[in-house]
Design a protein that fits this description.
This protein is an alpha/beta fold and about 150 residues long. The protein contains two helices and eight strands, in the order E-E-E-H-E-E-E-H-E-E.
Length: about 150
């Protein structure tokens, strides 16, 4: 499982001209699952996202978590996080988890996050337009294979 965490001032997702999710200060999460991922991998990443301290404290150090700043989450499904572009110029996505299973994991991941935070979402598998103002910029890549 991979999650790209972007610290944002605001973010929104639009599908077919309608806003499906919108937040102010918080995390924009790009969420991808690979074949073979289990609840174990998801829980490792979930724990890391919840505890990640990337907001500045009074001294300007990244020392505060999302809950410390009363931030929200916009979670976007992103199978392209498992793009393999080693051969040629057209990426392969054979490592990405199959659609139905990934959709279930994405929903479960968001449900678990919503126990601690306000979570807005995109629409799984849709053509989404994401707007954001990256704060910092701060972008962290979490990979369950490296946690």
């Amino acid at each position: 499982m991979r999650v790209v965490v972007q610290r944002v001032k605001y973010a929104s997702c639009t599908v077919d001209g309608k806003i499906t999710g919108k937040i102010d200060k918080g995390f924009l999460l790009l969420v991808g699952f690979k074949k073979g991922d289990t609840l174990l991998e998801m829980n490792k990443v979930l724990k890391k996202v919840i505890g990640l301290r990337i907001f500045e404290d009074e001294e300007g150090k990244m020392n505060k978590s999302l809950s410390d700043v009363n931030g929200d989450i916009l979670a976007i499904s992103q199978f392209t996080l498992y793009a393999d572009s080693k051969k040629g110029n057209r990426p392969s996505f054979v490592e990405a988890m199959e659609f139905d299973k990934a959709s279930n994991y994405y929903d479960l991941f968001c449900d678990e996050l919503s126990k601690s935070f306000k979570v807005e979402k995109g629409i799984f598998g849709a053509d989404m337009k994401i707007e954001l103002l990256n704060d910092g910029p701060v972008t962290i890549i979490l990979d369950s294979d490296e946690l």
